[in-house]
Amino acid sequence: MATLRNLFDLAVSAMRALFPWPRGTELIVGPVVLVAWILIGAFATAGEFPTRAIDFNREIRPILSNACFQCHGPDVNKRKGVNRPFRIDTEEGAFADLGGYTAVVRGKPDESELIARIVSDDSSEVMPPAKNGKKLSRKDIELLSEWVRQGAPYAKHWSLIPPSRPPIPEVVATSWPRGAIDRLLLARLEAEGIAPSPEADRGLLIRRLSFDLIGLPPTPEEVDIFQTDRRPDAYERLVERLLASPHFGERMAVGWLDLVRYADTVGYHSDVERSISPYRDYVIRAFNENLPFDRFTIEQLAGDLLPDPTVAQRVASGYNMLGLTTEEGGAQPKEYLARYAADRVRNVGSVWMGATLGCCECHDHKYDPYSARDFYAFAALFADLQQEGVGTPKPTLSLATPEQARETATLDARLIGLQEAVAASPRGPTEFAEELEELKLARSQLEQTIRKTIVAISGPPRLTRVLRRGDWMDETGEVVEPAVPHSLKPLDVPRARRASRLDLAHWLISPDHPQTSRVVVNRLWKRYFGTGLSDSLDDLGSQGEWPTHPELLEWLAVEFQQSGWDVKQMVRLMVTSSAYRQSSHPRENLAAIDPANRLYARQASFRLEAEAIRDNALAVSGLLVSAIGGESVRPYQPAGYWRFLNFPTRSYVPSAGAGQYRRGLYTHWQRTLLHPGLIALDAPSREACTASRPISNTPQAALTLLNDPSYVEAARVLAERVLTEGGTDDGTRLNWLWRLVLCRPPAGREQSIASALLEQHRGEYRADPSSASRLLGVGQKTVDSRHDRAELAAWTSVTRAILNLDETMTRD
């Protein structure tokens, strides 16, 4: 009877939207409507009507957020209503007195103004207004009506509730799961009637793991060892070896530097260089040493505020100075200080909270419980940072090596002694003038070789006001004290003391903070499975995507905290799971059921990042210089690319020697004119937080990979390796090349095509030696004179082709 009544009420509500009738005639019209509805097949089955408990966060909040919150949400200045402003984002608002009635009447959709408005055919009353272009679907109307009928229960947004460990479900296929991750995924797959994919072969697994954990391909020797290792823990041993590699930190650093918008230049106006590369080294070292993420957070946000901070902690505090700055002559310092403050709020909100706090710079957030006042109170937490509004921050921390420190001390001692001698000499400085100048020059030259970096320096805090509409010239706004958003647990700070960046850092990693652990594990999941459990990596708010597996996200978040914020342990859990080891091969039945692979019934297949594509080419060619850390380097770049960089004008000089063959992580990051090879492969300018890089497929990318000198030179040096190490006949050499680059032998058709290509180019280069010379002359690396030039050029054509295969650039 209850189901029939539900069906009847929904029929009345939905049909009123199509054919309005006077209120109070439902008992007459309703049954007729219901019968007509069934007859015309408006719904295929009664099973489409919700008869279970409606989940507010998963089913109702997204509808309201998309269609209603803009005018009836958190933003008090934009909130609309007939008699008085009305809000639907809170339970109090939904049941507030609007002048003799409420928008929602619990259990009675027929009497609820909310439902009446969304089904109205009156253009002056229907909600959302037609001009908004957000008309609700039939399914949305059904859900809202059923939600009201069930009493319109509200719930706090899921990402604002501290995570709690869920129970681990029972599964039927008990032999497949290796742990909680697998059981939580498999329970959903079994509910959908889907089986996981088989495990990938070992050649593919070691290639996948190598790219995922260190960003470099495995060597043929490493592939052979893994493929022949029959120990039951061979895979786990491989994982441990890669986690212990110093290249693990480099691989992890790429994603982190995208988040915190690390770059070698200031960004605004002339985009001049600044000294900040030691911060990058700190990040690499932190991941390699498995610095717990809570300490990683504290040291970056407030390393300078710790008691007796170490050099590394002071370097880490350089995070606070990574934003864009200007030195334009006509710039207004106050305007840019406001910009810098807003940039810090946006970045911390994105990186640690998965929150779009930047929406509050000019007005209250339209979808999430953050106000403009929250925004400026959050900015006040950084008001102690000593920074000029106009001007490039100067490096204040010297990082001399032990040898440089000894040499500095020696020179300083000699200078002091000489100055004392000058003071004692009746002839004054004349007697020692030449020696004094030599010492000063040596001291100056030594100083120039010592690395320096920009770090945070705390001082008296600036006054912080709420800037109405973000207007930096408006000085009428309320003065605010440092605080976190009002909708979250407040900072634990005594009333007598001003809150600091250190308090903020501790708040972000406190056990009951709802966001940080979820944000971090969600991004790690994306790295190893292709998409995040919530695919909106930088927005876990109302406009973000509901997690596909909320229980799994909760479990991972709690596990991360309780492991002591152990990053390597979290990575280990993910990559040793059965889910991670699945084949990425598409299955026909999955294409229709789960085309985006959000159920994770197979592994993901995606193109490598820009840096990894170039690193791979350098690695297989043997050119890669594997030194860790250091100053930024400059790969080959088209002549004249920097011609628009002015004030001052600059010329680009590619790095010579080892610097040319460093990993892409160390490439000079010029924000306004990023290296074209990075742009072509979707690297960000790092002017703002980038949580997920896009993956495009463009002609520019293909042309870059074919013609950029880095790739042409790598192909030529790889061809030299083929001729030197690959055997004595074409077939053996092609097999060696495939195993080196793709970790597998070539298929029969591949070998035939490659052989034909090789023969074609042998003929072309023998007939045109100058063309071979031009090809082989690309790059700084001297050509191996032991090889016939036409033969080497022909093999270079083959290696260029294999380096440009989709499989070569794809992590499967």
Automatic annotation (TrEMBL):
Enumerate the spans annotated as DUF1549 domain: 181-386
User: Which SUPFAM superfamilies does the record cross-reference, listed alphabetically?
Assistant: Cytochrome c (SSF46626)
Instruction: Show where the Cytochrome C Planctomycete-type domain sits.
Output: 68-130
InterPro entries hit by this protein: Cyt_c-like_dom_sf, Cyt_c_Planctomycete-type, DUF1549, DUF1553
Task: List the Pfam families.
Answer: PSCyt1 (PF07635), PSCyt2 (PF07583), PSD1 (PF07587)
Output the superkingdom of the source species: Bacteria
Keywords, A to Z? Membrane, Transmembrane, Transmembrane helix
Provide the transmembrane region boundaries: 28-49
Has UniProt tagged this entry with the keyword Cytoplasm?
no
Instruction: Give the GO molecular function terms.
Output: electron transfer activity; heme binding
Per the database record, which ranges form the DUF1553 domain?
A: 501-757
Protein name, per record: Cytochrome c domain-containing protein
